[in-house]
Design brief:
This protein is mainly alpha-helical and 242 residues long. The chain has 2 domains: 110 residues, no CATH class; 132 residues, no CATH class. It contains 10 helices and 2 strands, in the order ααααααββαααα. The protein has a two-stranded antiparallel ribbon. A hairpin with an 8-residue loop joins strand 1 and strand 2. The radius of gyration is 23 Å and the shape is globular. The two termini are 23 Å apart. The C terminus is likely disordered.
């Protein structure tokens, strides 16, 4: 019952926003550490093959390195730094797993229906919930599309009728919709057929992605509003807070 109260007051969305922002920061730090480690291993011959992208097994192996007697100062320093970076990456991997488990727990408790949609993972669902916030906050699917930056913007000229991308809205939410569309374009037959049909009609790939993101935004808004309607005894309070 406490989770439901947090959901309707927007607390769950705030919690998921904190978790997803922390995840983005950890991913950024992890990528930077791997890039630095790769450069270090390519600069110094420390016994690890870094000609290609480092694997998890290679990083874990570097993290287990011990000091070696007889190394010159430069090599010993580079080796110690490589160990520090590798251990930082492994620590971040563990933290990201903990973060993902917390996200899955919250999403599964308040909006498990999102995870049933093709291409929607826990992280994308968390971004959607934090933007949607609570029942009644966004009162139309057009409003949700505008919030996510997928509402069409007229760019017609003369006899040419066309629409361009909307550069506004919540860009994190827009990126989540993009990930969903890309996953569907790879694994969903209906989406692939739609892309092929629109391509034959002369639409560009950018225009097709915009249409698909608009469709996903519409289906998500309708799903959330069916599953979580505004309580009959509090519509005025919820709408007033929107």
């Amino acid at each position: 019952m406490s989770r439901l109260r947090d959901w309707r007051s927007g607390q769950t969305g705030q919690g998921l926003e904190v978790l997803t922002c922390a995840r983005e920061q950890m991913n950024h730090e992890r990528s930077a550490a791997i890039c630095t480690l790769t450069g270090l291993l390519r600069r110094f011959d420390l016994g690890a093959d870094a000609r290609h992208t480092l694997t998890r097994a290679q990083i874990a192996g570097v993290a287990r390195w011990r000091e070696r007697a007889g190394d010159r100062i430069g090599e010993a320093t580079a080796r110690a730094e490589a160990v520090r970076l590798a251990r930082r990456v492994t620590d971040l991997d563990a933290q990201l797993q903990t973060n993902l488990a917390a996200i899955e727990d919250l999403v599964g408790a308040v909006a498990p229906e999102l995870l049933g949609l093709f291409g929607v993972g826990p992280v994308s669902a968390a971004v959607i919930i934090s933007a949607w916030s609570r029942p009644g906050r966004i009162r139309s699917e057009a409003g949700f599309a505008a919030l996510s930056g997928v509402s069409p913007v007229a760019a017609s000229s003369g006899k040419t009728v066309r629409y361009r991308l909307n550069r506004g809205g919540d860009r994190r939410l827009n990126a989540a919709l993009y990930r969903i569309v890309m996953t569907r374009a790879r694994g969903d037959q209906a989406t692939r057929e739609y892309v092929e049909r629109r391509t034959r009609q002369g639409r560009t790939r950018t225009e097709i992605w915009r249409c698909l993101k608009r469709y996903v935004a519409r289906s998500i808004w309708r799903l959330l509003n069916r599953a979580h309607p505004v309580c009959a005894d509090e519509p005025a309070r919820v709408v007033a807070a929107a």
